Amino acid sequence: MPALTDFEAFRDIAKKVNNWGRWGADDELGTLNLITRQAVRDAVATVRTGRRFSLALPLQQQGVQTGMIPGRVNPLHTMVALNWEMFGPGAIATSDDVVTLGLQAATHWDGLGHVSHGNRIYNNRPANTAVTAHEGALHSGVEKAGPVLGRGVLLDVARARGLRRLPPGHLVTTQDLDAAQELARTEVRAGDIVLVRTGQVQLYLGGDRDGYGYPSPGLSLRTPEWFHAHDVAAVANDTLTFEIFPPEIDGLYLPVHALDLVEMGMMQGQNWNLEELAEDCAQDGRYAFLLSAPPEPFTGGVGSPVVPVAVK
Amino acid sequence: MPALTDFEAFRDIAKKVNNWGRWGADDELGTLNLITRQAVRDAVATVRTGRRFSLALPLQQQGVQTGMIPGRVNPLHTMVALNWEMFGPGAIATSDDVVTLGLQAATHWDGLGHVSHGNRIYNNRPANTAVTAHEGALHSGVEKAGPVLGRGVLLDVARARGLRRLPPGHLVTTQDLDAAQELARTEVRAGDIVLVRTGQVQLYLGGDRDGYGYPSPGLSLRTPEWFHAHDVAAVANDTLTFEIFPPEIDGLYLPVHALDLVEMGMMQGQNWNLEELAEDCAQDGRYAFLLSAPPEPFTGGVGSPVVPVAVK
Amino acid sequence: MPALTDFEAFRDIAKKVNNWGRWGADDELGTLNLITRQAVRDAVATVRTGRRFSLALPLQQQGVQTGMIPGRVNPLHTMVALNWEMFGPGAIATSDDVVTLGLQAATHWDGLGHVSHGNRIYNNRPANTAVTAHEGALHSGVEKAGPVLGRGVLLDVARARGLRRLPPGHLVTTQDLDAAQELARTEVRAGDIVLVRTGQVQLYLGGDRDGYGYPSPGLSLRTPEWFHAHDVAAVANDTLTFEIFPPEIDGLYLPVHALDLVEMGMMQGQNWNLEELAEDCAQDGRYAFLLSAPPEPFTGGVGSPVVPVAVK
Amino acid sequence: MPALTDFEAFRDIAKKVNNWGRWGADDELGTLNLITRQAVRDAVATVRTGRRFSLALPLQQQGVQTGMIPGRVNPLHTMVALNWEMFGPGAIATSDDVVTLGLQAATHWDGLGHVSHGNRIYNNRPANTAVTAHEGALHSGVEKAGPVLGRGVLLDVARARGLRRLPPGHLVTTQDLDAAQELARTEVRAGDIVLVRTGQVQLYLGGDRDGYGYPSPGLSLRTPEWFHAHDVAAVANDTLTFEIFPPEIDGLYLPVHALDLVEMGMMQGQNWNLEELAEDCAQDGRYAFLLSAPPEPFTGGVGSPVVPVAVK
Q: Which residue ranges in chain B fall short of pLDDT 50?
């Protein structure tokens, strides 16, 4: 178990970043409330070239899951019709597919129901009644998030450190975020969706699925304070675990998840492929863009695959 | 079986709208090639208010599928972890979900591999080798489509006819498209994504799942000529069957599918909820908008759920 | 809510039939303990002709589920390989299938973890820790049941009443069981697996899926006393709900489930097709047989499909 | 590619063991026809002690599949209800589970539709119409097999060779089968279900999932002649691949599958756990027993999980 002081640090940050009640006792959206129409217009105003980037990894059996996370299965693609002349010989034929997948299996958003602590999810709702097997997330399900779209800002922590990729054990600190923001030459502001690049996804893209998952660079439990101070709407990165893994504090697992999802009510994205986008940003020096990243509206979902599209 | 003349009509249109080879013998994208960077910039330029609209129906067991289409199952949401203190008592807890769904079950894109005729899919590829059970669509799988985003134009056929909703048997003709275009006060142009509104989805939203599916208003087999003439990138509507059902020509099933997907190489969207967007367009008289609608990149997918987001 | 006296009746029966601790505090098998080797030998000794009967309904999309029970989906059969010459052109080809199904969707056993009341499953284990989303049934999972095989006895309640099929609202009482036992001309004894026939499955077999499910004849909450008195190992019948539905006591749902599964630790079978077997028993007057009915050993399963085989 | 002579050997055996038309042009059962009522009575007559053995491996995520066989996924167990008081607070609560699994993923039968060669499945049916994505196996689906139950005979090849487990590269020959039959002190006869033990499953049971699958001991392409000469009804063993893997003849993959399933119309069982049963047979010297092993009746299934139960 972590030393008392560590837990105290966690609790201290939790208090500071807590957003319960900020948008009303009934709120289910959390920091997505920060994406105003003005923020959307500002996002649109960043577009110059019209170049589009998909930040999603392919959804396939050889996905990022390796069995490390129990029950979180890679997408399985199956057919229920194959060039089927349903209406008779010579007719126009159809093919139909069915998939089974973990909603957090690939490039995804963690919904606010994904994590609880002390039997609480965001906005002080009791976890045991707010998330059930028959309904999923009764509150703050991903279907409530709506059309997540706003200004994206890439914080390329690896590049800010002069690295192609952060080493596995690298703890992404608030200083790292500051440095990456400086590199980006834009101020992260209220309603922004922040993409933190570690370069770790290169391992998966290069075929090293195990190495990608673990050990992983990732966010420090101090970073939620930074996101809170900037009133960020959502944060995503290019790792399996989002936060550093093994954890920063021995025995304290998933503190960033708890701070972001439970305390702040801020969705987290994982397994986002930021490589091509980062290359482009480095070339033109422009790190802000229009970002469309709505979760699939699975009723009661505590997560969702997403195809983030950046437009520059 | 339809009379010879009907088949001849179909074959005649097929020849006119055929795009095989237009973007090279290796092309897998079809009309998505028409979305240029300029088209994206034009799309962005339509944004005024920053208001966002999700055009997706919820993904849930009580979805639009009723068993009418064999094997196409509504999304089933299940849990593999529920407020699970994986790391010990008192630890931060996680919930994880897994879904099974037909890729064409809800608001979706038909990929170019979804339909074949005469053993051919788009760009003259033999259907029996281009789409298999173990690989899905080896060519033109939905994962190839990339970040589908461009200018969307709503053709509100129902409103152009002064109706809240087209009657079940209504055949949407090219004249209907012309009238709706006139209402929209914008010219549909190369690379646009056209949304054709019938109002039929009101039935589903009102709880009449069977009535929603069948009988349905829908597109005439003459409409592909219209889309081809305007060099449209993709077309979606608010019905289960896309084209009129029962079919326009007795015994000739899915001719619009064949023309759009196979001959033109143009993706079709179905079960899109256009109600809220249409209301807004009617109010401000602006029917063009930024539309982001990337398919989920299921490797080999012949279809994909999509969360279309319109921004005005 | 039911009147106090009704709850008292339930609690009174619960006390009488309770088997907690009977086979030790660690027991996970319940009444399956009653199938001794002698019982198996007795079962084998009933075989005369060598005629075999399958009591399973087909596993298919058009199964007995109609959506009445949330999340309990009919089997969906999909292909992941189809005549696939995996090792090259001309090679021997393979086809592979994948299914998704509710474990209680078709002919099945309810495992002892399927039901809890007062937060208890069989043998006084707290339900909230004994059955979880990440492990399923940690105790008394269906994989623990092992090779369920013993003497089966058909209690043909419909025939004993001179009916081809019991009417929908028929409550199967202990008097019904007595009469059917008399018809069977054998004494139900310790370790027997009892099959109670209502004839209700005829509705499903005849295409009336809705009528099959509801309203349904079924067992009275008095019958567990009868099963307990005879030390039956397991009970199955030919209905969707097992017990009468709508319930016997207004507002008291699933009391037989609670008595059988929780109090007695006795597995229940549902949706068993007893028609062909019953016909044969009526013809030769022999209602006891060898019955093999092992659940599929899904680790942590709270239910399992089963292919019961009777041999006479 | 194998030398011509090898293909000739295969074709020569194929002719010898071919059963097409033997039970009529419409037959879908193949060698299961050999299990007569007399054979069932003989099977029953082998029972002495009443001891039962389950030969099934647990159905779980950590199953025998490792990704070596594309699309064949281990069972995934999920919950759709968890101690759910569906009928109100304090009501009796239910838990329900849903699984997704490859039908050939664990202890299973290969159905006759599982393999084709030269576009033919058993009884000369064209594979491309007999097995489709929308119907699965239209002919000889596993649901047709019915209540597979008869006399089982264990041929313990490992023990006959004085080994606890055959080495990975061991080819099980007809001489091996003869020696094991001698050890068993019973003559394999028409309608028997033969279980061939290699001991390979010990690797899986010991945690070596990769080693279990490959390389594997297994049956020689000469063994179908032996099974045919004895008019065996079905054969199962304790390996992932059934036949030796890598294959006996370089470049000729799955010849035993083709001979057994296509030519003979004989179901094959794989991943059967024969360890406990073999121990018992060695102790009492009795290698014949009653065996119940009905496939789950998935309509159109080309395979099925099975819980084989042996009774001695």
A: 1
Q: What's the average model confidence in pLDDT over C260-271? A: 98
Hey, what's the torsion of the CAs at A194, A199, A202, A208, to 10 degrees? -110
What are the tens digits of pLDDT across the range C13-37?
A: 999 999 999 999 999 999 999 999 9
Query: Which of D78, D133, D134 is facing B98, going by the closest CB pair?
Result: D78
Q: How many helices (H) and strands (E) does chain D have?
A: 10, 18
Quick check: bond before D168 cis, omega within 30? no
User: Is D79 close to B76, i.e. CB distance below 8 A?
Assistant: no
- Partners of chain C (3+ Cβ pairs below 8 A): A, B, D
Q: How far apart are CA A289 and CA A103, in angstroms?
A: 26
Inter-chain contacts counted by CB atoms under 8 A, chains A and D: 44
What does the buried/exposed string (b/e) look like for A216-242 if buried means 16 or more CB atoms within 10 Å of the residue's CB?
Answer: bbbbbbbbbbbbbebbbbbbbbbbbbb
Q: Tell whether the model's pLDDT for residue C89 goes beyond 60.
A: yes
Euclidean distance between CA atoms A232 and A15, whole angstroms: 17
Q: How far apart are alpha carbons C246 and C259 in whole angstroms?
A: 17
pLDDT of the residue at A6: 75
Considering only the beta carbons, identify the residue of B61, B73, B133 that sits closest to C76.
B73
- Interval C42-61 mean pLDDT: 98
- In sequence order, the β-bridge partners of residue D205 are none
Count CB pairs under 8 A between chains B and D. Answer: 27
| DSSP three-state, residue C307 | coil
pLDDT of residue A8: 87
Mutate to test the interface with A, among C78, C101, C114, C131 (most CBs of A within 10 A): C78
Beta bridge partners of B78: B98
Measured between beta carbons, the chain B residues lying within 8 angstroms of D77 are: 80
Residue A25 in contact with partner chain C when CB distance is under 8 A = no
Indicate the pLDDT class of residue C1, thresholds 50, 70 and 90. Answer: very low
- List the chains bordering chain D where 3 or more Cβ pairs fall under 8 Å: A, B, C
Would the pLDDT of A1 be above 50? no
Per the CB < 8 Å rule, is C134 touching A71?
A: yes
Q: In whole angstroms, what is the distance from residue C38 CA to residue B81 CA?
A: 42
Contact B303/A97, CB-based, under 8 Å?
Answer: yes
The verdict on B128 touching C (C-beta cutoff 8 Å) is no
Q: Who among A73, A81, A132 is closest to D84 (CB)? A: A132
Q: Which DSSP string corresponds to C9-35? A: HHHHHHHHH--TTTT-TT---GGGGG-
A71 touches C: beta carbon within 8 Å: yes
Going from the C-alpha of A8 to that of each of A173, A252, B308, D69, D167, the distances in angstroms are 19, 12, 44, 49, 58
Instruction: Verify whether the Cβ–Cβ distance D298 to C97 is below 8 Å.
Output: yes
Q: From CA C84, how far away is CA B170, in angstroms rounded?
A: 43
Task: Give the Cα separation of A107 and A268 in Å (integer).
Answer: 11
Do C78 and B71 lie within an 8 Å CB cutoff?
Answer: yes
The whole-number pLDDT of residue B5 equals 67
C56 touches chain B (CB under 8 A): no
Give the pLDDT confidence of B64-118 residue by residue, as tens digits: 999 999 999 999 999 999 999 999 898 999 999 999 999 999 999 999 999 999 9
**Span D25-71, pLDDT tens digits:** 999 999 999 999 999 999 999 999 999 999 999 999 999 999 999 99
Is the peptide bond between C75 and the residue preceding it cis, with omega within 30 degrees of 0?
no
Please give the Cα distance from D13 to D11 (Å, whole number).
Answer: 5
As a whole number, mean pLDDT of residues D236-261 equals 96
Please report the pLDDT score of residue A141 as a whole number. 98
pTM: 0.97
Confidence grade of residue A5 (pLDDT, cut at 50, 70, 90): low
